[in-house]
Amino acid sequence: MEQVIYCKVKVKKNHGLPPKIDSAEEDGLTSLYADIRTGASQCPLPVDDQVPVYHHIDNEKCRSLDRHLLNLHQELCLNKTDGSLGCHLCPLKWLLQGDDCYYYSDVTSRTWNQSQAHCRMMGADLLGIKDQEQQEFIKRTLKQRGEETYWIGLYRDGDDWRWVDGEHFNSSLFQIETQSSGRCISMITGSGYYQRDCESVNKWICVKKAVRI
């Protein structure tokens, strides 16, 4: 699946209605105004793989949202060959893969709990790896960043390993290298997954759902 980075969108408030598009920079990354989410939550959801269409709804806010989403779609969405009309966007400094956005930190000064708290502040969680395709994407992107250690969202819960979303760890996906009595898991570029003391400091990876327009 192709990795796509979109441009930065400048918007301004519109007195409680969805934001007006001010301008777009082709060489930037994506930044979307939170009112789009707020407006969308008040309107019927679109059918999968379609651009939201609210013009048939007797609600001016929904019709206004529809117009702005269509404008965003025209500005940002690449031409697609699979026949679908919508696309997914990520915030500034995040990478898009499938339906998800990934954030790789650039500092090394956070514990596991601090890293998770930072992810939550951005509406995300520490990385949860749930399938082989996702794991391969993470490995490819980490190779481009040099040898580093990153916290992921896997921790010891009693006798089991659990992801931060509550799902149990599937040990068939990868093996955890036991090198300490730590209860949190880090991922080392080009190496593997290791137990670490949760109070040690590392970089971290966050993940959250992309904004769909």
List keywords for this structure.
213 residues; alpha+beta; Mannose-Binding Protein A, Chain A; 2 domains; nine-stranded mixed sheet; two-stranded antiparallel sheet; 13 strands; 22% helix; 29% strand; disordered N terminus
What does this structure look like?
The chain has 213 residues and is an alpha+beta fold. Helices cover 22% and strands 29% of the residues. The chain has 4 helices and 13 strands. The strands form 3 sheets. Strands 4, 5, 6, 7, 8, 9, 10, 11 and 12 form a 9-stranded mixed β-sheet that branches. A two-stranded antiparallel ribbon has the order 1-2. Strands 3-13 form a two-stranded antiparallel ribbon. The N terminus is likely disordered.
Uncertain ranges: 1-35, 47-57
Distance between the termini: 19 Å
Q: What top-tier CATH class of the largest domain fits best?
A: Alpha Beta
Following the backbone from N to C, one meets helices and strands in this order, namely: EEHHEEEHEHEEEEEEE
CATH architectural category of the largest domain: Roll
**How much helicity do the residues have?**
10-25%
How many beta strands in the DSSP annotation? 13
What amount of the residues lies in strands?
A: 25-35%
Number of domains: 2
| Mean pLDDT over the residues | 74
Overall, the morphology is elongated
Offer a concise description of the structure.
Helices cover 22% and strands 29% of the residues. The protein has 213 residues and is an alpha+beta fold.
